[in-house]
Input
Amino acid sequence: MNARNSSTAGNRPSLDLHGVALDRVEARLEQFLHTARVSRQRQVEVITGRGASNQTGLPVLRKKVESWLTRNKDRIGLVQKQVTNQGGALLIDLAPPS
Output
């Protein structure tokens, strides 16, 4: 399954990472956030799922996404992130490009 880009309520761009291989998550995330920032989006949603369907029952994708965001926050213009949808998604606020 591939990541899907879509718009959610309020025209907020969304990236669904369900089913994306762990070794592809960072590349998909980086491309999505770059596109969002260039198009002057101020908030995006990244859907990671809650981890209920993997063997450990832990949110593997969310941890990988949060780690990447922390390492790259200045480069991507991260203002803040917030866990939503009972832990299955992240709302990410972006600074406008300089």
